[in-house]
Amino acid sequence: MSDNTYQLDPHCQAILQEYREQLPRFQKAAMEIYEQLKKVLDAACIVVASIEYRVKSEQSLAGKLELKGAKYASLKDITDIVGLRVITFYSDDVDKVASAVDRLFSVDWANSVDKRKLHEIDSFGYMSLHYICSMEGFPYRFEIQMRTVLQHAWANMNHDTGYKSGVEVPKEYLRNLNRLAGMLELADEQFSRIRNELTDYRRRVQALVASGNLDEVSLDGDTFRSYLRLGPFDALNRRIAAVNQAEIQDVNLMPYLSVFKGMNCKTLGDIDRIIKDNAEAAYQIATYQIGLTDLDIISSSLGPQDVCIAAILRSGGGKLGLKMLLDTLNGVSDSNEMMADFLLEQTRDLPFMNQ
After folding, report:
1. Residue 171: what are its φ and ψ, rounded to 5°?
2. In the chain, what are the helix, strand and coil shares in percent, each to the nearest 5?
3. What is the mean pLDDT of residues 299-320?
4. What's the rounded Cα separation, in Å, for the pair 256 and 315?
């Protein structure tokens, strides 16, 4: 496209020509900045929704020069030729990303803007953090924008509706738009708050579990996972494995969460008591099952499975209770009824059944 297409003076034409000559360099730099930033965020375990990058198009640059080309002495004064945008899930992650950017690149603080400090009621979608940066070996500055998913969605919706486009907008529309902005800003804050509260909750749970105060810990996915890290079935599994000098193959024991809930466990203390009360009976079951075999590998689920079998039988749950256990672990199937009959037959004459 020739310079005659644009309404540019010779000075701006020279800037545009430099852009054309440097375009491959801009494209290469944009990819390098993206890769460096992604690597640093991954290493810091900062999960983001997306990282976008682009090089300003010639048409976009020419439009900018037509409007305010006189303010730029050279192409180096235009700081958004290369632009990146990091979209985070949570508002407090914006600051984490900003810290990573600060460590990775040199930030031009005088020209960087924290638009989150704006307090206008209609500013939600524009509350990005904008850093103007530079890096070694690249003589041009570049822009990195950081904002949340909701802020990004809002900005895109505003762009599509033509808001702040210079066209007068009816007051009713603006009022509704501002109400929605307030709702989204509140949602952004609450998402971060809930995440922080959940993190604090998990830390408290881990501390209670580690201290052994299991009756104070309600049973849920997080608490059961923390409990399993203590290895509550390890001693039983090692004892069972010793029967055949077998190896223990670790498997996921989280499916037993539903089993213990079905056995009316409300706290980790309830589970702990079931294990202690039924460990000997579970050992008797396992010994009967594998004692006359040459099995040299057992699953780590054998201990918890036989603990549950023993607890069900000792509490009078019988065949129905065993079938419910098998349905929970394996999915509902007619074969579970036959397996329940088989387990009843296996355990009928074991010592714990006659105590």
Report:
1. -60, -35
2. 65, 15, 25
3. 95
4. 18
Q: What domains can be seen in the chain, in order of their start residue?
A: 3-150 (3.30.460.10), 231-354 (no CATH)
Higher pLDDT, 150 or 279: 279
Handedness of CA 37, 38, 42, 47 (dihedral sign): positive
Q: How many residues would you count in the chain?
A: 355
1, burial (CB in 10 Å: exposed 0-12, middle 13-18, buried 19+):
exposed
Q: Are 55 and 26 in contact (CB under 8 A)?
A: yes
- One-letter amino acid identity for 126? Y
Q: Could you tell me the pTM of the whole model? A: 0.62
Contact by Cβ (8 Å): 10, 16: no
**E strands in the chain:** 48-55, 82-88, 106-107, 113-114, 129-135, 138-148, 247-249, 297-299
Beta bridge partner(s), residue 85: 52, 145
Chain centroid to Cα 119, Å, comes to 30
Rounded to the nearest integer, the mean pLDDT of the chain is: 88
Using DSSP's 3-state secondary structure scheme, residue 257 falls into helix
Q: Which helix (H) or strand (E) holds 164?
A: none
Contact 124, 22 (CB under 8 A): no
Confidence of residue 4 (pLDDT cuts 50, 70, 90): low
* Per-residue pLDDT reduced to its tens digit, 78-88: 999 999 999 99
Q: What are phi and psi of 6, to 5 degrees?
A: -105, 155
Residue 14 has pLDDT above 90, yes or no: yes
pLDDT score of 322 = 95
Positive or negative: CA dihedral 73, 98, 153, 120: negative
